[in-house]
Amino acid sequence: MKNWDLEKAKELYGVDTWGAGYFDINEAGNLIVCPQGKDKPHVDLLELTEELQERGIRCPMLLRFPDVIHERIKLLNDCFYNAIEKYEYKGQYQGVYPIKVNQQRHLIEEVVEIGERYNLGLECGSKPELLVVLAMMTNPQALILCNGFKDEEYIETAVLSRKLGRNTIIVVERLEELDLIVKAAKKFRIQPKIGLRAKLQSKASGRWVDSAGARSKFGLTTSEIFKAFEILQKEKQLGALDLIHFHIGSQVPSIKTIKNSLKEGAQVFAELVRMGADPTYLDVGGGLGVDYDGSATTDSSVNYNVQEYANDVVSIIQEVCDEKAVKSPNIVTEAGRALVAHHSALIFDVIGLNRVEKTDAPPAVSKEEHKVLIELKDIYETLDLNNANEFYHDLVDIHDNSLQLFTFGILSLAEKAKIEQYFWSIATRMCKMIKNSKEHEDLYENLKKLLSDTYFCNFSVFQSLPDSWAVGHMFPVLPIHRLDKKPEKEVTLVDMTCDSDGKIAKFIDVEAGEPRNTLPVHGYSPDTPYYLGVFLVGAYQEILGDLHNLFGDTDAVHVSIGENGYSVNDVVEGDTVGEVLSYVQYNLEKLTGRIRKAAEHSILEGRMTKIEARTLMRYYQNGLSGYTYLEEPESL
Ligand SMILES: *Cc1c(COP(=O)(O)O)cnc(C)c1O
Q1: Domain for residue 204, yes or no?
Q2: CA 433 – ligand 1 centroid, Å
Q3: Which atom of ligand 1 sits closest to the CA of residue 249?
Q4: Which tens digit of pLDDT belongs to each residue from 89-98?
Q5: Residue 570 — φ and ψ, nearest 5°?
Q6: Probe ligand 1: pick from 72, 97, 99, 123, max atoms within 8 Å of CB?
Q7: Is this model's pTM higher than 0.90 or not?
Q8: Is 381 among the domain residues?
Q9: Which domain holds residue 407?
Q10: In angstroms, rounded to a whole number, what is the distance separating the alpha carbons of residues 26 and 44?
Q11: Are the C-beta atoms of residues 491 and 452 closer than 8 Å to each other?
Q12: How far is the CA of 224 from the centre of ligand 1 (A)?
């Protein structure tokens, strides 16, 4: 059996699970993006990264692949068409993309364009999002759904947009909004389209569940729905009620929770119809999950696929409506994450490493030296498989004690340094010795973690992977090249911020089904670039990212993949240092002015030459217009 091949690489990094067929590894050992499968047009990520850098695009870079969004939109629609056919469902399906998941203009343009043939609509959850959606959605067949907290201005704008031919439905999240809608309808003599959001009792599970349950922020309780119905009836506006909606949270890991909420939501719909309402749509919200880690058990995974989801949505609604003898609604979904998570990847380079492993012989120790050192020397020399466990505990004790002795002034700095060297030498030797020993598996895991290198990486977790830091969400991370070679090391990753939370220390392990503490990687040397990619970052990460340590937006590139290779459609340059500083209210001219003044002062006092002052000013000004991440010096 071969020790290493591409199949092994795919298994190790779980490419076939999280990749969902959009990612693979080519013969050269590079990761590829292949929206329609390996045999269809694809792009080699290493080549792409290198060629983009030739064009001046910098690491870290965010790569967006609209072709992948295309596949996701098609997949969701195909799955619903299949389900409708399978169950002979009498209504239709129509999707809506909630823009809060990723509002970047280029992306919204792609979603609108790709979605046109499916009449894919847009959902907004705030006033700024409403203004985006009204301008961007030009397909009159597609829905515009208005959620979130609404004031009079929000509601009047939404109501008036119907005069533009927009298919706008205002979803009532709080009962007070209904009065405002009725008022606006009278004021402008427009028949609005109204939706009611039901607060379901069925609780979701998973990491983002707060959107459901009686205490959730949004939606109407059963009694409020009843009240809303009465208000509409009294105002003779029952005909305006066009949609019933519920949303139980994002990334719902279990199909069982989805089914339960569907049963409850479909009953709300059917009951309202029996009471005399005639809504066209039942909107089952978002929550369709993405399999980030391939485990089918954690909150970063799902135990169902898109077809199973569609089948359950269609069949459950059908069943409830048939039972209650009401007509089947058109089904709306608000899947956001499931449409865009796969389409983007963050690529960054390793810029250094911290190595604790020590393979060279430790320093000599004479009989006169501190007895701690003599003991360590003894452990180093007599270590074998039989005493490994015992010596490991001794080693840890001695290491802890040496700190105490040092703090009390008993050990010198030179002695402490020697102890440290012994500690790492012994741990390294022990780890090698027990590597293949069955009865030392636990110890081996401990030592491997203790001895793992740290790779310093050119990116910010807070800017680019906020969910990894904030809620421990898992994203697939792996090298994008050299995958034809067996990774010989295991490391943790730290980012450029000086925050101890700025790291990735949990990685997916498809085989074990639970996260591992280190990432298998290849050796790093400063003269050959080593690139890592974080995948499935297309949903929520960009807009939630923050400016910790003033690291700004990364460069972002839209890449289309066609028969004749790839093409770069849009480049969105990342923030300059100056831009990030202005976000926190610094005035660049004033900053530059201060440095210039200080330099002039130093020249006057004879501490600085004019040439030095000019050089400093140039560095300062270049710094302000430069990238917030580490940059290669410009060579033209
Ligand atoms: C956030 C949100 C969504 C999107 O959820 P996903 O899990 O990304 O599919 C859909 N509907 C509403 C009302 C939301 O607030």
Answers
A1: yes
A2: 52
A3: 7
A4: 999 999 999 9
A5: -135, 140
A6: 123
A7: yes
A8: yes
A9: 371-449
A10: 8
A11: yes
A12: 22
